[in-house]
Amino acid sequence: MRYRRLHVRYAAVAPSGHPWPFDDLWPTDRVRILVQASWRPEADLYETPTTIEAIVALPGIEEDDVDIQLFENVLVVEGQRRLPVATPEVLYHTAGIRQGAFQIALALPARIDPDGVQARYDRGLLLITLPKRGATA
Known about the structure:
Elements: E1 2-5, H1 29-34, E2 38-39, E3 43-47, E4 51-57, E5 66-70, E6 74-81, E7 100-107, E8 118-122, E9 125-131
Parallel strand pairs: 1-5, 2-7
Antiparallel strand pairs: 3-4, 4-9, 5-6, 6-7, 8-9
């Protein structure tokens, strides 16, 4: 897991709903769902009197495949989930586990102290504690 604090004001994250780039390479939408370029993990963001807490559900993702970026007003978590590659003779009946690149941007409701940010990865959950700027425990 890598953490970067950036010194530019964050404006927006480009949505992942870009048009399908391969035209009619695969004729059915069922196959397209299996190879979508990005997905968005579930997350909770809540505030205490002294901190902002973020929990991001990242089951099946290695800690080294996660990047955390902190902008002035947004926390961005991005990375990649890699599932085992199926052999050609495999026939999927259900494919609900998203894989590939992911990105989630969480707008921060208060100014935070970037030097006190703590993150840990526990049982598939990324837990991030962002202390509020000027708040005392």
